[in-house]
Amino acid sequence: MATGVPRSPIRSVSDSPPITLGYPGKKPAEEILATTPGIFEHVPTPNANMRKRLYFAENLSVLTSLAQDPGVCGKVRLVYIDPPFATQTVFHSRKLAHAYEDVFEGADYLEFMRERLILLHRLLADDGSIYVHLDAKMVFHIKILMDEIFGAGNFRNYITRKKSNPKNYTRNQYGNIADYILFYTKSANYVWNKQVEPWTEERAREYQYVDPATGRRYMKVPVHAPGVRNGETGKPWRGMMPPPGKHWQFPPSTLDEMDARGEIYWSKNGNPRRKVYLDESPGVSVQDIWLDYRDAHNQMVHISGYPTEKNINLLRRIVEASSNPGDIVLDCFAGSGTTLVAADSLGRDWIGVDNSPEAMRTMLHRFEHGTEPMGDFVGKQTPKRKATDTPLFAEPLPAENSKPVCCEVSDFTLFASPDLASALRSMTLTHQAEPVKRDGKARSAKAEA
Ligand SMILES: C[S@@+](CC[C@H](N)C(=O)[O-])C[C@H]1O[C@@H](n2cnc3c(N)ncnc32)[C@H](O)[C@@H]1O
Question: Residue 397: pLDDT above 60?
């Protein structure tokens, strides 16, 4: 395995001149930050809670307004966005309702994204994080814009997600089953709850040795690491120097203690290796390739029916890793509300924005009734319903059906821009849903993934 040694002293990214992206129509950041804030009408809901806000509006106007709100500006712990990808596509729901249009391209698309990213940077807390979900088409351009706005030194990961099963591709190129998530933080000190994947029997096979005395499974790993050190870890241990170009992972006194506890394995040639026990490891640290979060891929997966809806467990991982209970999570391209439901189920407050009527209808229905198995949408252009079914959102309710079957989110406040407020009023909740008690602990993700 190749081992690189960081050069010393380590040069920070900020020491090098920044790389910027030039395109026509790129405005000064000050001009974007000075955009006139939007004004919104409050639309009543049964259990209004200002800590959870859903806006039916153009998101630039909402972000500029939130930038003036001292309760939000600089206090958002996590932003996740899944914006249009510049695909030149019109999206429809599973029930063939028009959802949204992804028609910006080139410089117009870049400036549309940059305006929102600059405001999102302003809204983030100093220890906040942002995840931007994109596909291969624009991810490189947006990476450069994010380096400009968040600082290249605050880039954390370029996550590759497997979004679907292999396709029977007819074009003369490789199948396309990946999309990408850019993860940045606002500073070097950020909320981070390490995520681990539990052991599977296959992964645990790496722990191929068994301690004869205890029966514990372990693997052997080096006791040295790349790079020369002049301190304790560069000194001889048991008469041995670290291999050339390396240093001990621990000071010699600690290595002595580990050896006394039986944690060092000595080869026949007298080379030390460290024993790492399976039962002491909670699992494998999550890496930057995510294979287990495909979007709806079989008939049993629960979905909202909104196009481009993301896997709820993908969002639960991001929310758990980069926020804590009580924090504000923001998604200004909310779609079917996956981020908002994930955040709510984990005891976070949230702010969601979308300007599509179908997205609003979907979110309000989802909050009240949850999702449905994908199979139930097949061949169903108008929903087949029995008289005994729970009524669809906004249908008049018979008295005996006044409780929702599944209430995912029940206490939130609705806002709309003046031009959309009356449309939103015609959609608002018909059920007097009970507020869901939250304790910050994860609820089961049902059969959604
Ligand atoms: C890819 S979808 C998001 C899907 C979402 N992640 C989910 O899991 O359902 C993008 C959403 O952004 C919304 N959108 C696009 N431009 C917008 C804008 N300027 N203001 C508000 N919403 C916008 C669209 O209506 C669409 O619902």
Answer: no
Closest ligand 1 atom to 116 CA: 19
Ligand 1, atom 5: closest residue by C-alpha = 335
Domain extents for the chain?
23-168+175-195+286-425, 201-280
Instruction: Please list, in sequence order, all residues whose beta carbon lies within 8 angstroms of the beta carbon of residue 296, skipping any fewer than 6 positions away.
Output: 303, 309, 311, 374
**Cβ-based neighbours of 255, under 8 Å, separated by 6 or more:** 223, 237, 248, 264, 272
**CA 5 to centroid of ligand 1, rounded, Å:** 43
Distance of CA 334 from the midpoint of ligand 1 (Å):
5
Q: Does pTM surpass 0.90? A: no
Average the pLDDT over 247-256 and give the result. 96
Specify whether the CB–CB gap between 380 and 416 falls below 8 A. no
What DSSP letter does each residue of 154-196 carry, written as one string? GEEEEEEEE-S------SSS----EEEEEEEESSSS------E
Q: What kind and span of H or E run contains 196?
A: strand 196-197
User: Do 382 and 407 touch, CB atoms closer than 8 A?
Assistant: no
pLDDT of residue 12: 62
CATH assignment, 23-168+175-195+286-425: 3.40.50.150
Query: 438 C-alpha to center of ligand 1: Å?
Result: 27
The residues, any chain, with a CB within 8 Å of residue 13's CB and separated by 6 or more, are: 151, 152, 153
Do residues 447 and 301 lie in contact, with contact meaning Cβ atoms separated by under 8 Å?
Answer: yes
pLDDT exceeds 90 at position 429: no
Q: What is the DSSP letter of 279?
A: G
425's tokens: 């009023």
Q: Is 355 in the pocket of ligand 1 (CB under 6 A)?
A: yes
Do residues 322 and 339 lie in contact, with contact meaning Cβ atoms separated by under 8 Å?
no
- 307 CB less than 6 Å from ligand 1? no
Phi, psi of 246 (to 5 degrees): -125, 175
The Å distance, Cα 339 to ligand 1 centre, comes to: 12
**Spatial CA neighbour of 448 closest among 259, 324, 314:** 314
Element (H, E) at 181: strand 178-185
Residues 6+ apart with CB under 8 A from 2: none
Predicted local distance difference test score (pLDDT) of residue 440? 40
Mean pLDDT of 289-312: 89
Neighbours of 311 (CB within 10 A): 24
Is the pLDDT at 293 greater than 90? The verdict is yes
The verdict on the CB of residue 354 being under 6 Å from ligand 1 is yes
C-alpha to C-alpha distance for 324 and 321, rounded to whole angstroms: 8
* C-alpha triplet 322, 324, 325: angle, nearest 5°: 145
409, pLDDT greater than 60: yes
